[in-house]
Structures are given as C-alpha cells and as structure tokens.
Amino acid sequence: MRRAGAVLACALACAGWPAGAYGAAATAAEVRALAADAQRDGAALERLRAIDVVDGRPAQLAAALRGSDAELRARLRALAQDAPRKGPPAPGSTPAAAREQAREVLAQRRFQGTKVPSPLRSVRERIGDALRSVGRPFESAFRWLAERLPGGPAVLWALLASAVLATAALLAGRAASRRIGADEGDGAGAEDEQRMSAARLRQEAERAERRGDLEQALRLRFRAGLVDLDDRELIELRPALTNRELLSGVRSPTLAGLVEGFEAVAYGGRPADEDDLRSACDGWPRVPDEAARR
Fold first, then answer.
1. Secondary structure letter of residue 240 according to DSSP
2. Which residue, of 80, 106, 130, is where some domain finishes?
C-alpha cells in the first residue's frame, strides 16, 4: 500500500494541465484493478495510461508509468497491490462468519487437550503423601529453630550446610587413614615375607596345609623356592620379578611346570589340591640342580 500510494502521489504531482483537458476518470479501486490486468494485457495498460482523474483529483498516470520495463512492472505491481477480488465475496468474509469458522477450527481434536492414562498416579500420590507426613516433623522442628535463632532460616541453613560438610570431611579422613594403614600393613607383611628364609616359609606352608588352606600353602612354597634360588645366586629376587623373567633366567623343565601350576591357581582361579602341593614339595629341590647342569 505504501508503494501504491507513492505511485499515485507521483501521478497526482505530474498533473500538468487544467481539469478541462482530462481524458478519463476512475476510482482508486478501478486503477488497482486495471494495474493488475495491465501486467498481462497491453490494452489495459493503455486504458490505465489514459486516466488523468482518480477519485476526482487530477492524476497523470501516463507520466507515472514511463521508464524501463523493470520500472514499469514494479509500478504496476505497486498500483495493483491489494486489488479487490472480482466476483461475489468469499464465504466467511463477514466478521460473524469468520468468528464461526474460528470456533469450528478450535473445536477440532488437535486443538483440544488429551488425557493420558496414568495407572501409577495413585501410587505416586500415596508415596508423596507418605513422604510429606514423614517430613512434617522435620519441617516443624526447622521452623521452631529458625524462629529462635538470630538471622532466621538463612542462618540455620548455613549452619546445617557447615555441619554436613564437616561430617563428610571427617568420614573421608577416617576412610583415608584406614586405607593408608591397610596399605602399610600389606607392605610390611610383604617385606616380612621377603625377609623370611626358605626354611621358615616352608614351615608356614606346612601350617597352612594342616589348616586346609591349600592355596596359601602353595603360595608359600612357591615363595620359598624363589628365596632358595636367590640364596644360590641363580636369580635376583625383587618385587618386580615376573615369571617370564624367572623362566628365562633359570633353565629348568621342572620350574616351568611349577610356574604353570602356580599361575593356574593364583591367577586362573583353579582351586589348589594335594597334587599341586606334592609337585611343589618334590619339584623345587630339583630346580637348582637342573639350572646348574645347563
């Protein structure tokens, strides 16, 4: 509408002769209709250019519709903007009909709320009621303390938060102390076991065997065998010594079988039995001799 008004204003400004020389008169609605037709019909364009009076006011449309083809098309589109439709008014064009149509649209299902079945609603409500009943005494106690404490609820919340943080820090410290103590105990036990002689380790293995702890007995006999090899300077016993390094340093078929059985129990999860202990008792004394012959 702004561009159409601008074109009409230009046409009115271009009126250059008296009213007696006017060639054709038209209303603004007729001008818009002719402009819409003139975009496809040359005769309509000529009729439009012949108009020099619009709604009783002088207007030189011929001067306003000069220029290049692109400018002409742009001005015709501006004049034809909001051109009235030809023929009878469309149904629903009156305000009453528009309101009725809006009510019909809003009554459709897609604009209505959908009730989703909630089989757990009663369960949730019962749980919520139970939690509220449990929390009421705490809420009452909180309000009672907040009313008697300087600063009110804000200070009470701060005190409660500080108490929670202090408790958490205390529990974390105790857990760390227990963990450190356990680690130190494990390390001391490993060092004590390493300092034990092969004979002492075999004695401990016999005690474990009498208790029925065959796996512990097998571990102790394996450790005793390693200590014996270290005493004979066939290996350098250290915590990082692996079984692969052990087998590469001590060439003994018996040792290979002992290592295989020990790994099956210690790492493979197989229960130790009497055969494992018998093999350990008979095999470890043969390992130094086999290593020395090679």
1. T
2. 80
Token readout for 61 is: 């449309």
State residue 94 phi and psi, 5-degree precision. Answer: -80, 155
- State the Cα–Cα distance between residues 163 and 200, nearest whole angstrom: 53
Range of the domain at 281: 196-293
* CA 209/CA 219 separation, integer angstroms: 11
pTM of the predicted model over 0.70: no
**Of the candidates 78, 59, 64, the residue with the CA atom closest to the CA atom of residue 12:** 59
pLDDT value of residue 216: 93
Total domains present in the chain: 2
Say how far apart CA 80 and CA 4 lie, in whole Å. Answer: 7
Contact 54, 26 (CB under 8 A): yes
Domain boundary among 44, 62, 80: 80
Domain assignment present for 138: no
Sheet holding 24-26, edge to edge: 24-26, 51-54, 57-58
pLDDT at 95: 67
SS (H, E, C) 183-237: HHHHHHHHHHHHHCCHHHHHHHHHHHHHHCCHHHHHHHHHHHHHHHHHHCCCCCC
Question: Which has the closest alpha carbon to 273: 224, 222, 220, 212?
Answer: 212
Can you give the pLDDT at residue 203? 92
Identify the residue whose tokens are 């306003």.
64
User: Could you tell me if residue 284 is inside a domain?
Assistant: yes
* Gap between the Cα atoms of 290 and 294, Å rounded: 7
pLDDT at 94: 65
Give the whole-angstrom CA distance, residue 179 versus residue 60. 101
pLDDT along the chain (294 residues), means of 10: 49 41 73 87 87 82 81 84 50 63 64 61 76 79 81 81 86 62 44 69 92 92 90 85 85 89 90 90 88 74
